[in-house]
Every structure is written in C-alpha cells, then in structure tokens.
Amino acid sequence: MRKALPDTMLNGKDQPRLSMVANWVLDHQVTEIEMSERQFWNFVQLQPIAEKPWMTYMGRRLRVPNMPESAQKTLGLFDNAGTGAI
Fold first, then answer.
1. Residue-wise pLDDT tens digits, 63-72
2. Which helix (H) or strand (E) segment is 62 a member of?
3. What φ, ψ does residue 55 adopt, rounded to 5°?
C-alpha cells in the first residue's frame, strides 16, 4: 500500500531519526513511500554512505512526485509507470 510520509515527519523541526521512519513503515504496512522533496533531502542526510543510492528504504520504493523529473531520473527515482505509460 502506497502511503505519503506524514508532513510532520522529517520536517527539520525536531531531530529526525531513521528509526522513526522504520517504525512508521512497519506499523502502517507501507509498500511504497511517497514524500515531498524537502522530506527526501532530510531523509538522505540521515542515511549512511553505504546505503546510497536512495531509490528504496527497507525494500520499499521511494516516490517524490514534486521533485523535478530530471532530478528524479538522475537519482533513479523516476517512475515511468504513471498515467499514459506503456
């Protein structure tokens, strides 16, 4: 089930933690994570170098629909299975 990351998570107001995101993924049975571009960049700052590239988290695909398409393609996030795709 695709779920959007809550606006309050990874917003920079408090100290974000990956354990918070991991618990959210498991508690809500998330299969695909959708987040804003700001949340995405806060998220990648938390991940260790060995975890990059950031196309998935805990095996769940990341979606950042408000990120420019060219940036998504560069990072490997672009989902070409959207509307009108074959």
1. 999 999 999 8
2. strand 60-63
3. -75, -25
Give the end-to-end CA distance of the chain in Å, rounded to a whole number: 22
Distance CA 33, CA 7 (A): 13
pTM here is 0.76
Q: Copy the structure tokens of residue 59.
A: 């095996």
Q: Is the pLDDT of residue 3 over 70?
A: yes
What are the angstrom distances between the C-alpha of 26 and each of 14, 55, 63, 69, 71? Answer: 21, 18, 17, 29, 28
Give dist(CA 32, CA 1) in Å, integer: 6
Mapped onto helix, strand or coil, the DSSP state of residue 57 is: strand
Please, are residues 2 and 63 in contact by the beta-carbon 8 Å criterion? yes
